[in-house]
Design goal:
Elements lengths: L5 E6 L10 H9 L2 E5 L15 E6 L9 H13 L3 E6 L9 H11 L2 E5 L4 H8 L13 E5 L13 H6 L3 E5 L5 H10 L7 E6 L7 E6 L3 H7 L6 E5 L6 H4 L11 E4 L6 H10 L3 E4 L3 E4 L4 H9 L6 E4 L2 H14 L10 E4 L2 H9 L13 H8 L8 E7 L5 H8 L3 E12 L7 H8 L3 E4 L2 H9 L9 E4 L2 H10 L4 E3 L5 H11 L4
Parallel strand pairs: 1-4, 1-5, 2-3, 2-4, 6-7, 11-12, 11-18, 14-15, 14-16, 16-17, 18-19, 19-20
Antiparallel strand pairs: 7-10, 8-9, 8-10, 13-17
């Protein structure tokens, strides 16, 4: 019996990945086919499973990669093939997202579908701008309309006279290009010239920006500041609350565009911290992790790990690869025996703890030389040490432990290779929009970045996690670079804040 397909019409939220619902995240992670629009957060595409078919549908103003009728045909066809399809749309699929049309096509085709609501920018955008769309002191009514229609055309379905007379807050989207006409229609309908209005573009993201004025002045302000779509507009006295409760735009890294070059799987932690501080984050993985060339030798090293006195881990990737292989071989954690465990830094230690093992040795300096200094305080002469590492890692630890009298073997757990794919368009975005800062967390991220052939953005700086990474950067580029004194993600973030005078 063939598998029955299902299509999920999913709201991706307004842009901040933290505003994606749990149901939406599950749909993205488990689907066979992802049909997605020009999302405010390209990170969501990276949540898909390996082998998922990605279909970019476009849908940004007049720039449609695929016409709507063809999108309808694609989601029906893929679902009829027995696949799990996620149709991912910005905001909420049923609020000016044409989700109703797509649902009707699926229903007519007789296929299973579900609608997964998302947080709409009509609500979230004003909230992030410090504007409550309802407020006891101002209003208890909310009207939402589209600004996409030309208010001067005869066949418009919008009654601007009625909208102008309607009490409460008015919110509209897709209206920047027609803003002057919309304001004029409101004034013709009897609205007061001094009625407050605010527009927020790229709401809830690091590119978030707000302008405000009145119905009489806002069109001139938008033109003078070259304020462009996508934007959500709020009309009403609630805009006055922004002076008191504007919270998002006061964050320390607000307005800074920062690039994260870690692997697609690891980028989230650093990206999340930077976004919480208000940065506009571009995730541009320059490397990916693959299995070692000699898988048999790796498996044999893991199987005999219990024969060593020490296990040394110098990266979270090594920890993950090692213990996943370990538990594929053994069912009981006690099979690791009595060997002690050393980690190069907090992130590696935390990953080890995820597998319910304690760390016996953690250096004060989170670099290879610091780990060697920490071992000087141990008695490791004639002890057997297994170093779990990447294939291309420096030999500093091997040589240093050998000099201390230890018998050192290496366990090649993975290899780092340049990332060649760009499914989210991050490389193109960096080329076109530039950045204020590009972060590097290893020498391999640096080398792979420059292999991508992306010109170093004008006035852009680099932030390196430690001296080895900084040295590699300086060998490749003459741009200014800041270096983290504490060689972990916390130290890197603290260094970035200090660099911008926000520490």
């Amino acid at each position: 019996m063939s598998k029955q397909g299902i299509c999920y019409l999913v709201g991706a939220g307004p842009g901040d990945p933290g505003l994606v619902t749990l149901k939406a995240k599950e749909c993205i992670e488990t689907c066979d086919v992802l049909v997605y629009d020009a999302l405010s957060s390209a990170e969501l595409v990276g949540w898909t499973k390996k082998g998922c078919e990605l279909i970019f549908a476009g849908k940004r103003a007049a720039d449609h990669a695929i016409p709507q009728d063809q999108i309808n045909a694609i989601i029906v066809e893929k679902t009829l093939q027995g696949k799990t399809v996620t149709r991912l749309k910005g905001g909420d699929p049923m609020i000016f997202g044409r989700g109703g049309e797509e649902a009707a096509e699926l229903a007519e085709a007789g296929v299973l579908f579900e609608i997964v609501p998302g947080i709409s920018s009509t609500i979230a955008g004003p909230a992030y701008a410090g504007i409550p769309v309802t407020h006891r002191d101002h209003c208890s009514q909310l009207t939402i309309f589209t600004g996409h229609e030309d208010p001067t055309k005869g066949e418009t379905s919008l009654d601007f006279d009625q909208l102008a007379k309607t009490p409460g807050t008015k919110v509209f989207v897709m209206g920047v290009s027609r803003l002057r006409g919309i304001c004029e229609e409101f004034l013709k309908g009897g609205a007061m010239e001094d009625t407050p209005i605010a527009l927020t573009r790229w709401a809830t993201t690091g590119k978030h920006r707000t302008v405000q004025g009145t119905l009489a002045t806002i069109a001139d302000i938008v033109e003078e500041q070259n304020f462009q779509s996508p934007a959500v507009a709020v009309i009403g006295d609630v805009v006055r609350e922004r002076d008191k409760i504007n919270w998002f735009e006061t964050r320390p890294l607000f307005g800074k565009r920062i690039v994260v070059t870690r692997t697609r799987q690891q980028a989230g932690g650093l990206s999340r911290r930077l976004r919480q501080l208000g940065a506009d984050v571009i995730e541009l993985p320059t490397i990916r992790i693959e299995a070692p060339a000699d898988k048999r030798d790796f498996a044999d090293s893991v199987a005999h790990a219990h024969t060593y006195d020490w296990l040394v881990f110098t990266s979270p990737n090594g920890v993950e690869r090692f213990f996943d292989a370990f538990y594929a071989t053994y069912e009981d954690a006690r099979s690791l025996g009595g060997c002690r465990i050393a980690a190069i830094g907090p992130s590696t230690r935390d990953k080890i703890r995820d597998y319910h093992f304690a760390v016996d040795l953690l250096p004060d300096r989170f670099v290879a030389e610091g780990l060697l200094d920490a071992f000087q305080k141990e008695s490791i002469e004639h002890q057997k040490i297994l170093w779990v590492k990447a294939e291309e890692t420096r030999d500093v630890i091997f040589d240093g432990l050998t000099e201390q009298g230890a018998i050192v073997d290496t366990c090649l757990a993975y290899r780092t290779v340049p990332e060649t794919g760009d499914p989210t368009g991050a490389a193109r975005q960096l080329r076109e929009e530039g950045a204020d800062l590009i972060t590097f967390t290893s020498g391999s991220t640096v080398e792979s970045f420059f292999k991508m052939g992306i010109p170093w953005p004008e006035s852009c700086e680099a932030a390196c996690i430690g001296p080895v990474t900084a040295k590699t950067f300086r060998l490749n580029c003459a741009a200014p670079a800041i270096e983290s004194e504490q060689h972990d993600l916390d130290g890197l973030v603290a260094t970035i804040l200090k660099h911008y005078g926000k520490a």
